[in-house]
Every structure is written in C-alpha cells, then in structure tokens.
Amino acid sequence: MSEAAAVDTHEHGAMHADQLEPSLTPGNMGKLGMWSFLAGDAMTFGAAIAAYGALRIGNPNWPSPAAFLGITTTAIMTFVLICSSVTMVEALGSIQTGRMARYRNFMALTVLGGLLFLGMQAFEWHHLLGEKGMSIKVDLFDATFFILTGFHGCHVFGGVVYNSVLLIRGMTGKLTPAKANLVEIAGLYWHFVDLVWILIFTFIYLI
Amino acid sequence: MTTQAAISGHEADHSGPNYIAVFIYLSVLTAVELGVYAMGLPQAAKVGLLIALAWAKAVLVAMYFMHLAMEKRALAIIAIIPVILVTFLCFMLLPDLTTRMWTKFDHPRPVTNPAEMGAHPVAPPPMQVP
C-alpha cells in the first residue's frame, strides 16, 4: 500500500482488511515492535519446550502423559482458543471498515474466549492438584507441566487484559477506525498465544 | 483448488484471507490430531505425525491470522529467526542427554498417596554430582 493510499484510508476511516498497517515505516513502528517482542517470547517458549524434551527423552521413567492428563478438557480449550482467534480477526476487519458495533461484539467474544480458556485451565489444575496428586514439587514431569502451561496461562491472562482495554476504549469512543492498527497489533499477540498453545497441546498432552 | 486459493479472499467487501476457511482447516487438523492420538499407532509414527500436524496448524495461524503471507519479507525473517535458533538449541541439548548421570539410574516416580507407600517406597533423590 502506498503512503498516499494509507493517508487517504486513515482520513476517511474506511480501511479494508487487505490494507494492513505499513510494517517498517518510521511513523508506524508498533507492528515491528510487537513482532520483535514475539520473537523474544518465542525463544522463551522454544527454550522451555526444548528443555522439556531433553528432560523427557533423558529419563527412561518419564510417566506417560495419558496416565495423568485428560485431553477432553484441553481439546475443548484448544477449540476455544482457535475460535477466539477467529473473533479477533473479525474484530479487526470490523474496525478497519468502520463497523464499531460489530467490532465491540467480536472483541467482547474474544475476551470471553480468553476467560473461558482460563476458567477451564483453572478447572484442570484443580483436578490435577487435588485428585491426581500432582504438584510442582513432586517431580520433573509435574514441574515442567505446571511451568509450561502456567507460563502460557499468564500470557492468556495478559491477552485478556490487553483485549479488554481495547474493548473498553472502543465502547467509550476513544478507539476509532483511524486507530485500527492498535487492534491489529493486539491481534498479533493474541494469535501468538494461540500458536504457542497449539504446540504445547501437542508436546505436553498428546505425545 | 489449492489451500492457498481456498483461503484467499471470497467476500465481496474485502480481499483479505478467508478466515472461516482457516478456522475449518485448524478444526479439522485438531480432529485429525485427536484421531492420531487415539489410534494406537507405533510411538515413532505417532510422534512424527503429531509434530507435523502441530507445525501445519502453527504455520496456518502465522501465515493467515498473523498476516505473514501478506506482509513484507522483513517480518517473516524476524518470525523465522526464533525457529532457527530453537532448532540449534535442540542440537545443543543433545550432549546433555548422553552425559547426564541420573539417566543411568532407575528413579521411579515418587509415591504421593500414603496408602501405596508400603508397596512402592519413595525413590532416593537423584545423585548429586559435584
């Protein structure tokens, strides 16, 4: 998208989904900043998952995850997070095209999806800590499980707060279609959280 | 029709990705994952399939929800760097697997239920290597 076209769409508040924020222009570094943060965050998750793999492969007595971790709840959690990613892109498309009521509805659904995920994770942890006798102090299987899923849960919580702020700003009129790039940047974070969960679901629960 | 073509714009009001198609692909891949998990395949085949499916889903999210497919190449390079570095990290961890002392000893999972204590005594702590 040319600079002139970008200025034009901002002035008229009628951006389209294909007219994304310019990536590397000096006046609009938000997206580059978020991508840089996500690259660092990806290294943290990558290192944690790699360490988990090394510990697991190196221990012949590593328990079978299936003996402790049910996948029914987590499969639903995965589906909820995928759905919330869809509502996030719909919220972005809505604000880019100036449909603020639709934006608020989809952003509210995104926040709701995040809260639902956190609620189900709390339910799962309660079950594992209670009935299954798991604890971060028992062994490396338990420690790696709680650290990885807990760290991801903290990210989901952060995303819920982030999205809630954008929802409230949209409800109070402080967020307008001219600032749709803020929603796109928040969306990058939210989709990253979804992406990481896809990997955690596979490496921790399914394998 | 290719996946790329199917995902590319279908709505009249904009030419962005078809997010519903991406959602359907992700849901189907998740269902396939659960199928692979429940099928009782040999461990190597199961692990290989599940990792391939997880990466397929991750790439779909990054390419279409995070717009990497439509972005400048510079952002894709930023995104791929952690993947390359973590791959190297996995190789860097390999020596640890061959040298770690405690892997050579049998340390069963500690028993947390007191009723089972008699049958399965708690394992001693891992050997401390100075």
Structure overview:
The complex is a heterodimer of chains A (207) and B (130). Helix content of chain A is 74%, strand content 0%. Chain A contains six helices and no strands. Chain A is elongated. Chain A starts with a helix and ends with a helix. In chain A, helix 3 packs antiparallel against helix 6, helix 4 (100-130) runs antiparallel to helix 5 (140-171) and helix 5 runs antiparallel to helix 6. Chain A has 207 residues and is an all-alpha fold. Chain B contains four helices and no strands. In chain B, helix 2 packs antiparallel against helix 3 (43-65). Chain B is extended. Chain B is 58% helix and 0% strand. Chain B has helices spanning 3-7, 19-38, 43-65, 73-99. Chain B is mainly alpha-helical and 130 residues long. Classes of the chains: A mainly alpha (207), B mainly alpha (130).
Give descriptors for this structure.
heterodimer; A: 207 residues; mainly alpha; elongated; disordered N terminus; B: 130 residues; 4 helices; 58% helix
Lay out the secondary structure.
The complex is a heterodimer of chains A (207) and B (130).
Chain A: H1 3-12, H2 30-58, H3 72-96, H4 100-130, H5 140-171, H6 180-206
Chain B: H1 3-7, H2 19-38, H3 43-65, H4 73-99
Helix pairs in contact in B: 2-3
Overall radius of gyration of chain A: 20 Å
Number of strands of chain A: 0
Overall average pLDDT of chain A: 88
Multimeric state:
heterodimer
Order of H and E elements of chain B = HHHH
Helix/strand/pairing category of chain A: mainly alpha
How far apart are the termini of chain B? Answer: 62 Å
CA gyration radius of chain B, whole angstroms: 23 Å
Strand content of chain B: under 5%
Number of helices of chain B: 4
Largest interface, by Cβ-Cβ below 8 angstroms: which chains and how many residues each?
Answer: A-B, 60 and 57 residues
Sheet with most strands of chain B: none
Largest sheet of chain A: none
| Average pLDDT metric of chain B | 78
Secondary structure tally, helices of chain A? 6
Number of beta strands of chain B:
0
Shape of chain A: elongated
Approximately how much helix is present in the residues of chain A?
over 70%
Query: Termini distance of chain A?
Result: 44 Å
